[in-house]
Amino acid sequence: MKLIFEKSIKDRDGYSLPGDLFKEIKIEDCLPEYAISKKKKLLSEVSEVDVVRHFTKLSKLNYGLDDGFYPLGSCTMKYNPKINEKLASLNNFTYAHPLAPEETVQGSLEIIYDLNKLLCEITAMDEYTMAPAAGAHGELTGNLIMRKYFVDRGDKRHKMLIPDSAHGTNPASAAMADFQVVEVKSNERGTVDLTELARLMDKDTVGLMLTNPNTVGLYDEGIKDIEKIVHHKGGLLYYDGANLNASLGIIRPGDAGFDVVHLNLHKTFSTPHGGGGPGAGVIGVKKDLIPYLPTPIVAFDSTHKKYYLLDLGSKSIGMVRAFWSNFPVLIKTYVWILSMGPDGLYNASETSIINANYVLAKLKKYYKPAYDRYCGHECTVTGKEYKKYGVKTLDIAKRLMDYGMHPPTIYFPHFEPYAEETIMVEPPESESKEMLDKFIEIMIKISNEAKTNPELLTTAPHNTPIRRTNDLVAAKRPILTYDDELKLKDELKYKDKNIDF
Amino acid sequence: MRYIPNTEEQKKEMLKEIGVSSFDDLIKEGVPQSIRLKGKLNIPEARSETELEEKIYNIAQKNSNFYLMKPLIGAGAYRHYIPEAEKFLLQREEFWTCYTPYQPELSQGTLQSIFEYQSYISRLIKMEAVIPSIYDGASATAEAALMSLRLTHKNKIMVSNLVHPHYRETVKTYLAPHEPEIIELPYKNGLVDLEKLKILINEDVASVIIQNPNFFGGIEKLAEISEIVHSKDALLIMVIAESISLGVLKAPGDIGADIVTGNAQSFGMDLNYGGPYNAYLATKKEYIRQLPGRIIGETTDVDGKRVFVMTLRAREQDIRRERATSNICTNHNLNVIAADIFLSLIGTKGLYQISLLNTKSAHYLENLLLKSKKFEKIFDYPFYNEFLLKSKEDIATINKKLLENNFVPPLKICEFYKEENLKNVLLFAVTEVLSRDNLNKVAKILSE
Q1: What is the pTM of this model?
Q2: ipTM of the shown complex
Q3: B306: closest chain A residue by CA
Q4: Residues of B in contact with A66 (CB under 8 A)
Q5: Which residue intervals define the domain Glycine cleavage system P-protein N-terminal in the entry (chain A) (predicted)?
Q6: Do A469 and B307 count as a contact with CB atoms less than 8 A apart?
Q7: Which of A476, A497, B213, B376 could cross-link B384 (Cys pair, CB 3.0–4.6 Å)?
Q8: Helices A433-452 and A327-363, interaxial angle, to 10°?
């Protein structure tokens, strides 16, 4: 499809300026000559109609959650309720300036204050910061909190334990806090090896970052022993909430002894992914760690009956962003929790766990489970049996697209010998049994195709807007802008470029 | 529950297929009884959609009616007009509900849009490689500072204290574990003190962080700054808090910037009480391997069509884990789409005109306020659309008058700067949402 630049026609307008342009004032009287750009910066010149058609057409090249099944493991692609969007877009919220006087933003502050209470109850924590903009941002915040906690106690701990099954963000976040990352191997059941943990956990170790259920979709049944081992050596226990969708009303991380918890509001709490954010990665802590949260937090002055931003003072790690939070994401979360109530939240976790185990039960004859046990809200199977037909997990995933479904997460988690060629399926509570049956039917069909006509898979997808991409070329000769393309235009020979408007 | 299609009957049927008698049976192995929650969560019972709507509308009424209130405040968050076409297009579910574009065959809409945005930003700031989305200006500046430490293998950073105070705080937070020396570069007469810069800088400095226009709205002498910074082999990190200024101001890449970070909120993003905004982080191609975050590149598919993919991925956390250049994963992608649509709508001419208009109307207001004799200049410096004035009247009185007349008051600069001469000083911001009539009214209210 053409780029917006290729649709540009000189002097075309897509925007209406106010009539009064203060023409009596000369720009040279306002700005020094050294600062003014000599030439206009070239964007594109298109009409509003051109823009609407361009982006409508672009949107149709995407596959969204409202289009169908989206079983990406560890991503919790659940339905995004429409009422959330409406209530988050009320003018009194969207036009509020972050530095407006506190008396003018009492409504926004009330929502943040109330949401904190709800999240504390759901996870058994004592206080949340709403500042982190995403899961990894929350992880960094959590690591910095733990670091400052130990620094203040004069305790020089510098190692962080992270299971081999953890998301890549965990070690990357710990490294940003300048911790040395120590990997904890999983045992034959797919969970943390307690002997190994006990051996590694020492007085130089900050603690353990744990995802529960872990990224294979398995609950760590040794959670109580893990807690004892880490706390016994004075460490802290960090909960990666990427997989909280298996826990609502069932287990609360705070009750299980976690000291720091991060929640991805754009996963469990139904706010949309937007093609990679914005979400929110709020961090909850136990009482002793509250002073270390990023400053400020929202507090309530009961004498004057007003909400305000409370500066946490010198123990705080400081700010991790400009201003306070990704506020609309908080409203959507708040509305979702109130829509669900305690029974609805429990039902969400119960249904997603049943969904995942149902998929596992029906698929395991065709795709071997990484571990043959009941799972949490997602299941991990492998495509390694099909290697002998020349088919990889990637091919299975691409073939699913031909049947109108988004593929599951593939090649993650990855650790031998159990989790190779992995396919991680997460069918959240918003997916019906009929949808799961359809998915199972297609997966079985693909397993037959793999045996009888492997080429159909290795050349898949066939029915998508584009087909498999040359990623190596992209990395070897980076074309990162339209101007890069223009410089190479004699070398690049694209098919259909001008036909496809 | 309306968001959960499966009925109790279906769940029973599925449990049977799984081979267990009950849900408890299914999870008893994974969830030890001793930590299982006894009873229900203590949160309010479920509300219907109508009840919820009423509740949230009532809470929203506790905010001021911000739609009608024109802001005289900026300080890193600017209200600009957002064309309706942008808001409408952005809500298409294909942009709104999709995941990160790991599967390019199903994500060309997102990928091409990001590529277009990279192309726009590259032209605006004259840098070759643009990371389209770090969370915001503050975190992007912190990432740029970390990047400069990696590129130079030095451990000293110099930050102008006219960089947005929240950005400076965030830089400190991100850098704290690496225990660098952070030197604050003082200002003089509303701009970076060039003499102090010359004295303070030496070969141990990894980078110097300068914001332009600076937090006071002032226009820095970037060419001179660049010369001083580069004479000591340090990198120049340029921060832009108000990206619309790029319509009239020179591109940072043309005045010696090595790394540029920019708050893109002005490109079609609502104020939203502080977020989500977005920031770009850009550099020269030679520094590409040290960039944090995602970038989109052009290639072909097996049929030879031009297509877009996530590229240069060997820097990222999901591949490199603790050796990644950053931990950033989910970012503010939808804001990138918003900005791409916004820039497409306003186009070459629109960006220039809005930028011009913001400059002129800010100078118009300053002139009116000075004429009223109720305000005086404290610095004689060139500014873009924000400026400082000292009020002869008490600020609380001014704020009250402005709020009563539906204006969000300017920033009291003493909230961030403790200098004696900055007491009773206001930081005004003007954009195209304030008409000449609005500005005349502001001047009238404040001169009474």
Answers
A1: 0.98
A2: 0.98
A3: A494
A4: 93, 97
A5: 31-312
A6: yes
A7: B213
A8: 60
